[in-house]
TrEMBL record:
Pfam families: GILT. SUPFAM superfamilies: Thioredoxin-like. It is found in: Secreted. This is Gamma-interferon-responsive lysosomal thiol protein isoform X2. Keywords: Glycoprotein, Secreted, Signal. PANTHER family: GAMMA-INTERFERON INDUCIBLE LYSOSOMAL THIOL REDUCTASE GILT, GAMMA-INTERFERON-INDUCIBLE LYSOSOMAL THIOL REDUCTASE. Belongs to the GILT family. It comes from the Eukaryota. The keyword Glycoprotein applies. Residues 1-31 form the signal peptide.
């Protein structure tokens, strides 16, 4: 067994030469450190059931799989809301949705690190998913986070400013979003195939340090976009339906203001 000493010497020399060559030759450009991350943009609104479902049951797989290491994830909590000319924002599922959209926008702004804001938003989305969204404030305690900065943000000008920024970003989408959840990988919307987002991320990644889960993903499952989404999504409303909704929303909003209720 093994090499005799006569055979070992040339083999050893070969290995040394190969090592030297690998050190001296220019490295390929697609090294793990230089490959750009795949951008993943998630456009959603807090009270759309399909969005909470996607967040809690699918988006979380990004972390379970380790694929988050090659992803630059950005959350955009705004969805199908609408900005009136005087900058009042109307949300598809009413004022409570506007409130939670703003809370989540504030969390992203206040805690820019994904490992801080993501668990907080995940916690809120879990409450929404369980139809207990009014209990969202428990998330501060659950995650041992100080509510002060977030409260200052969503009750004040900062929160409003952030939501108007998300409004502008969402309205600038090309192609425009048709419904939420709306998932965009490297600038390309996935349409109804959004639950398959991990495959698209793996396919888009140009680096050599491919996460193990990507190799296990069957990339040939990427389907063509034809059918309507099977999941309950929230569509952008028709213009006429929208203006009727705006009128009734304004009426109820004014009523609430008269009663001194918190918007
Ligand atoms: C914005 O306009 C709506 C409808 O015209 C009105 O009900 C609301 O009071 C206005 N809000 C502000 C902040 O001026």
């Amino acid at each position: 067994m093994g090499f005799n000493s006569k055979a070992r010497t040339p083999l050893f020399a070969c290995i040394v030469l190969l090592l030297l060559a690998s050190l001296l030759l220019p490295q390929p450009a697609a090294g793990s450190s230089t490959a750009p991350k795949v951008t993943l943009d998630y456009y959603y609104e807090t009270l759309c059931p399909g969005c909470a479902n996607f967040f809690v049951n699918h988006l979380i797989k990004l972390f379970d799989s380790g694929i988050h290491s090659i992803v630059d994830l950005k959350l955009h909590p705004y969805g199908n809301a609408f900005v009136l000319p005087n900058t009042t924002i109307l949300c598809q599922h009413g004022p409570y949705e506007c409130l939670l959209n703003t809370v989540e926008a504030c969390a992203i702004d206040e805690w820019p690190e994904l490992n801080v804001h993501f668990p907080f938003i995940y916690c809120i989305e879990s409450f929404v998913h369980e139809h207990k969204h009014t209990e969202w404030e428990k998330c501060f305690e659950k995650l041992d986070l100080d509510p002060k900065s977030i409260t200052n943000c969503y009750t004040g000008e900062r929160g409003k400013k952030l939501e108007l920024q998300y409004a502008a970003e969402t309205e600038a989408l090309q192609p425009p979003h048709q419904y939420v959840p709306w998932v965009v990988v490297d600038g390309q919307p996935l349409y109804e195939d959004y639950e398959n987002f991990l495959s698209y991320i793996c396919k888009a990644y140009k680096g050599v340090a491919v996460p193990k889960a990507c190799r296990e993903q069957s990339l040939n499952t990427i389907r063509t976009r034809k059918s309507k989404p099977r999941r309950p999504v929230c569509y952008m409303e028709e213009k006429s339906a929208l203006s009727a909704r705006i009128r009734s929303a304004i009426a109820s909003w004014m009523q609430k203001m008269n009663m001194g209720a918190l918007l």
